[in-house]
Amino acid sequence: MKPAIRLCALVAAAVLALTACLNSGADRDGIMVTTNILGDLTRTVAGDAVEVTVLMPPDADPHFFAISAQQAAQLERANLIVYNGLGLEENVLRNVEAAERSGVPAVALGTEIDPISFSADDANGRPDPHFWTDPHRVRRAVEVVRDRIIDHVDGVDAAAIRAGADRYLAELDRLDRWMTERFATIPAERRKLVTNHHVFGYLAQRFGFTVVGAVLPGGTTLASPSPSDLAALAGTIRAAGVSAIFADSSQPDRLARVLAEQAGLHVQVIPLYSESLTEPGGGAGTYLEMMRANTEAIVRGLTAG
Fold first, then answer.
1. pLDDT tens-digit profile of 251-261?
2. Cα–Cα nearest to 174, from 300, 291, 45
């Protein structure tokens, strides 16, 4: 074969190989995560091995936040999308589904952790997406993230990903033991939760609490209570002898205070970090920090008086 012909053949082969790589997803870049709580988990597992982009800003509401056209385009170029699912990211799901249709691998962690359902009275028995309030289920979520990164991010250092996951799993085990010890200081008859909306079902199941009710009906902050909803919950609180109402730190607690007044009892309104991390230094900059702060707040609220 003449040199010129051989060169042309080599160039053509290289172009075909490049095209095949592009079509197979080799041009995809990094991991996209919808919520900042899952973003913290994913970044901790990934470390420096792969870039992780989190769509939801600190102190935001996962039920409300939306993304830009540029971010939606980024989703369609990702190696992997990590999202909660179970109806949590109500304004972003269509973008995630569009990226999946274009061939981007995605994992809905809420479906992987043995989800529980809201009661029929709370949200017509729909799956509860707030699994992160149970560190044992977060442990499972971390294992899924680890495996998906290794499976779908080409060229990633699998040993580094496994090591990052192992370190974090050990942290979660310590957190779970510590929360168990702290909650054991609350008398059984006081382990009753009233919150701004239904967020702590998984925590209640894991650590032996009863969820008496929530100010906002259903499992989403998009709902609003009626006067009859408030009156009924006030009666329940009065009968249960609840000493504290827990309101999300990122939301106004006016409704919780109104409910406390309607209950006709001295009821504290205590802020918790329930659905979003804060900026670093804001009290819940990481998942571990958020859970420790919430645990101490619940213990303080239910053992006072």
1. 656 767 777 77
2. 291
